[in-house]
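FAQ: What does a ligand-bound record look like?

Like this one, built around flavin-adenine dinucleotide:
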Amino acid sequence: MFDKGDRSDRRFLTYEHHLREGEITDRGVGASRPPCDSHRDFLPDGKIPAVNDLPKDCRVAIIGGGVIGLSIGFHLTKLGITDLVVLEAENLLGTGSSAASAGGLRQQFSEEANILYAMEGVRQIRRLLEETGFDPEFREHGYLLLACSESRLKALTKDVALQNRLGLPSEILTPGEIGDRFPELETGDLTGAAFLETDGYCDPHAILMAFAEGIRKAGGVILTETEATGLLLDGPAVVGVETVRGEVRADVVVNAAGPHGGAVAAWAGLDLPLRPCRRQIFCTHPFPFRRDLPLVIDMDHPFYFRPEGEGVILSAAEVEETRDFDLTLLDADLSDLVERAIHRCPALANATISGGWAGLRTLTPDGTAILGPAPGRPGFLLAVGMSGHGITHGPAVGLALAEWIATGEARSLPLDPFRADRFSPRPPAESPGAIEG
Ligand SMILES: Cc1cc2nc3c(=O)[nH]c(=O)nc-3n(C[C@H](O)[C@H](O)[C@H](O)COP(=O)(O)OP(=O)(O)OC[C@H]3O[C@@H](n4cnc5c(N)ncnc54)[C@H](O)[C@@H]3O)c2cc1C
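The answer part, i.e. the structure of the complex:
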């Protein structure tokens, strides 16, 4: 029976486990996977690495040691810029949104720029093992987006045409075709689905580790327990960061602070339309289930699920703004989620919930990130608002912004669709937290 099972907080248990094991982080989806040992070489004896001294100046200072900040740092080192520091407030890397992700890699977007970033992300993740030695365990089982209405199917059909034009082999399936390929699913109320077999899911932990080790090996500095507390300003220009360990001057300061990106931007007087929203993921105990199912999203009765380890993970795909960043796991809506899940996939009735976790997705009004130079603030770069696709887009964001820092333009990918002033030009205002330097 698909009931709540024991209500242990899996996220907390996993976090404790990794602390004990000396691993950097994996509070989230890696819970049921075997621990990754490949990063031991930069964590000898399972110890957390020693904290380096804060440099007095550097070329690039990155605020935030999640997938986005680390990806930017990694790509900078690949372009030969190693004089950089990543500043992370917590004692471990990747404990923010990155640890909470479902590890989904979806290229099926509606906008050209988001598709191109996702395609580049998947390209890099396919190469990750060979390039870095870290295995992202990319399970290329696809994403299946289910439609229950004609209007939803029409929208998916339009998206698929755009994706095909950009080179993705996504396709529209009829309810009959869905049933043939995925007999586990109830199709009686469906009008169709979009499917892309080259989508899938991965281990986000390995991606983070690969980027962090790449930075360290190239000579870049990563400092944990180093919270940024303000920006150093020289007129309109951002010229460095104030931290709990002192100041670091930098030619370029990058805001990659995830859900705290709005607060960091406000230090420069920028009012960015960022909304941190809670989302929960529940995981099940092991049970007999098909392991190569795609990540299935029920678009019209929002929820998604996918195999993970010997069980599944599932989420009500809620969009709930939070002001206090409270990540307590709530089971108020669990019975509704369970009902939707069993309706769509009757075999889930054999599962029991083992736990789960909550995380923050940082949304913008159009669901697309804010990337590139901050309006009116030379020396300040924004990499925020990654919504529910920061793991997928992270590798490409790193490439585009590293190119921009190194050469003044993003050569491989478009940056313009992500510019901050697309919402409304909000000129810098008074800057609490800014320090004139
Ligand atoms: C439940 C859930 C499921 C998701 N599923 C997916 C998915 O399937 N696929 C996908 O692609 N994406 C998914 N996402 C989204 C993805 O996890 C995020 O978009 C991504 O992790 C954002 O990365 P980030 O580096 O911007 O933020 P974070 O990972 O939050 O990193 C920001 C870092 O900045 C640090 N920081 C903040 N303020 C300061 C400061 N003042 N000084 C120093 N450090 C600071 C924080 O401690 C944090 O470590 C999901 C998110 C959630 C919550």
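Follow-up question: can I read anything off the structure? Yes, for example: The chain is about 30% helix and 25% strand.
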